[in-house]
Automatic annotation (TrEMBL):
It comes from the Bacteria. Residues 50-101 form the Insertion element IS150 protein InsJ-like helix-turn-helix domain. It comes from Candidatus Accumulibacter phosphatis. It holds the Pfam family HTH_28. This is Insertion element IS150 protein InsJ-like helix-turn-helix domain-containing protein. Residues 169-194 are annotated as: Disordered.
Length: 194
């Protein structure tokens, strides 16, 4: 994971570009247009820093390179902030980050699924009954979190993965390219025209 580079705010009022300058006083960062203060935020308020610099760029007062040089932040993070500002506006900087939802296969769901599988139901029917994806249950079976009893005379209920099939083929004689399935054991397959 990339390390977050925090902006560096100068103690004295320092020009960023022509009429726009920035300074820090008592833990507050203040932006000036000429001699007039136009905006301020707390020194540790990264979201507001990103919002205001993106706003200055969007309005044409600054360029990405100006912000990057003045505050010592990567140009890529400034571009990301600008994109967010253009897509979501100022409020986009203050929404909580989206987190992954809770796991679908909780202990209770696993218990219900295992009971249904023990009753002889197939993985797709259990998935439909519980309202979850069949692939999710198949993955749990392959990982050993669920167990499926193979019924006599039927094929496996959970297909193998491509990598599992490749590994099995590589251990077979001739890499899985042995005698055709239609050839009888002990009889050589004809080479044609003879």
């Amino acid at each position: 994971m990339a390390q977050l580079l925090l902006p560096i705010f100068p103690d004295a009022v320092t020009p960023v570009k022509e009429l726009l300058s920035v300074g820090k006083q008592d833990g507050q960062v203040v932006y000036f247009h000429g001699v007039l203060p136009v905006f301020s935020h707390a020194e540790d308020d990264l979201a507001t820093f990103r919002m205001i610099t993106a706003q200055f760029i969007a309005q044409g007062h600054l360029r990405v390179v100006d912000v990057s040089r003045a505050f010592g932040v990567p140009a890529l993070s400034v571009k990301r902030a600008l994109k967010r500002y253009r897509q979501e506006g100022p409020k986009g900087f203050y929404v909580p980050p989206r987190r992954r939802g809770p796991a679908v296969l909780t202990a209770e769901v696993l218990k219900q699924a295992q009971a249904l599988l023990d009753d002889g139901q197939t993985v797709p029917s259990v998935a439909a009954e519980l309202g979850i994806k069949s692939d999710t249950l198949s993955k749990a079976v392959r990982a050993g979190r669920l167990h499926v009893a193979a019924a006599k005379g039927t094929c496996a209920l959970v297909a193998s993965t491509k990598s599992e099939r490749s590994a099995l083929d590589s251990t077979a004689p001739m890499g899985g390219w042995g005698q055709p399935t239609w050839a009888k054991p002990g009889v050589a397959a004809s080479g044609g025209g003879g």
